[in-house]
């Protein structure tokens, strides 16, 4: 299947450009985690990533969250279409206006995802992310 113009643009970026984008995400998440008092009890934390623009970011997300939590990460990455994520580990096709599958999760992470959702459906997405959390879990929405 042909990738959308948006996903083609992402796929054409160099590894250095993608690393720079990952570095920005890491700094954002570092600031978030610095503000939170989270103590994940299990050895492995379950993470659900809502939306992802490019397959190389899937492994960046996992690495970043493992570094920030000091835990092994079992990650599911979702998007409404997944052709652009082909070859990445743990990817599922999912529409985030529906409840998140496989819950509960320790962390649900969405980076600039809501800008792609019609405004009258955004609250549904936010609610779904919170509903999918374990007690004491955290939903992170970066705008």
Description:
The chain is α/β, with parallel strands linked by helices. It is built from four helices and five strands, in the order ααβαβββαβ. It has helices at 5-11, 15-35, 55-69, 119-131; strands at residues 44-50, 72-79, 91-93, 105-111, 133-142. Strands 3-2-1-4-5 form a five-stranded parallel β-sheet, sandwiched between helices. Strand 1 (44-50), helix 3 (55-69) and strand 2 form a beta-alpha-beta unit. Helix 2 packs parallel to helix 3. The protein is globular.
Taking pLDDT < 50 over at least 5 consecutive residues as the criterion, the unreliable ranges are none
State the end-to-end distance: 29 Å
Q: What fraction of residues sit in β-strands?
A: 15-25%
Tally the helices: what do you get? 4
Main beta sheet: strand number and arrangement? 5 strands, parallel
Structural class: alpha/beta
The 3D shape can be described as globular
Number of E strands? 5
List the helices and strands in order: HHEHEEEHE
Helical proportion, percent range = 25-40%
What's the average pLDDT? 91
> What is the topology, as strand order, of the major beta sheet?
3-2-1-4-5
How many whole angstroms does the radius of gyration measure? 15 Å
């Amino acid at each position: 299947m042909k990738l959308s113009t948006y996903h083609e643009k992402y796929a054409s970026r160099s590894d250095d450009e993608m690393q720079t984008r990952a570095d920005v995400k890491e700094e954002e998440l570092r600031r978030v985690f610095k503000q939170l008092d989270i103590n994940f009890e299990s050895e492995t934390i379950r993470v659900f990533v809502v939306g992802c623009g490019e397959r190389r970011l899937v492994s960046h997300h996992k690495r970043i969250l493992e570094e920030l939590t000091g835990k092994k990460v079992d990650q599911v990455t979702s998007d409404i279409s997944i052709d652009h994520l082909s070859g990445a580990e743990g990817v599922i096709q999912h529409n985030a206006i529906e409840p998140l599958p496989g819950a509960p999760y320790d962390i649900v992470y969405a980076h600039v995802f809501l800008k792609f959702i019609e405004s009258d459906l955004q609250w549904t997405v936010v609610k779904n992310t919170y509903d999918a959390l374990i007690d004491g879990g955290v939903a992170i929405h970066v705008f």
